[in-house]
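It is time I had a proper look at our fold encoding. Can you supply me with one protein entry, sequence and fold together? It will help me judge whether the discrete encoding reads sensibly. Leave the record below and I will have a look:
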Amino acid sequence: MKLGLEGRHALVCASSRGLGRACAVSLAGEGVSLTLVARGRDALEETAAHIRRTSGVQVHAVVADITTAVGREAALAAHPAPDILVTNAGGPKPGHFRDWNRETWMAALDANMLAPIEMIRATIDGMARRRFGRIVNITSAAVKAPIDILGLSNGARSGLTGFVAGLARQYVAHNVTINNLLPGPFETDRLLETAHQWAKDQGRDPDEVLARRRAANPAGRFGLPHEFGDACAFLCSAQAGFITAQNLLLDGGSYPGTF
């Protein structure tokens, strides 16, 4: 299936590694030019070079912290009118709620709720005027099934989900959609970090914890980043204009509910 995206431009946040990079790679494969944003220069430049080499699309690499106003301005200066926005930020570190103060909470909200909202605000009206826009927020399966040691993420990402549910319905008539991708266990650095925290709390070997998690998933494995990236590309496609305000869970069947 051709997704009808050739010639479009996407701004992909936190795209130097992990699931953000996977989304960028899949979009580039559909002929989408890119603005990649991340804080780490070396990983970002490597990702940009890889995508240029393998897809031939134009790629701008912007080293910036998207949680700050200066960082957001830098990202948008590279291409002020993207057709596609993929918001993403590394989740807060695992821990326990008694250890979190107001400063900790505000950092989580800035990264995983307020920064995506600011990026949406900066781009959505232009999308509406041009009669095409796709916004995809990378959130977490924890929005549907909270994870005890990820309370900061549970709270901040759920706030973003509620905000999007109200906003998306105001723009879909302009062919602008807003959806959320909820990753479960994917083979990323984030998963390894969480597994090490669980192992530490339980006094177990991290490799044992990872093996148990793989075995416990109905799929018998963790997700592969390219699977996630291709799901993102479809939500950005011309064919997905009737899909909005949705939360697509990619977890190998872990979530036990019907809805």
Remarks:
- The chain has eight helices and seven strands.
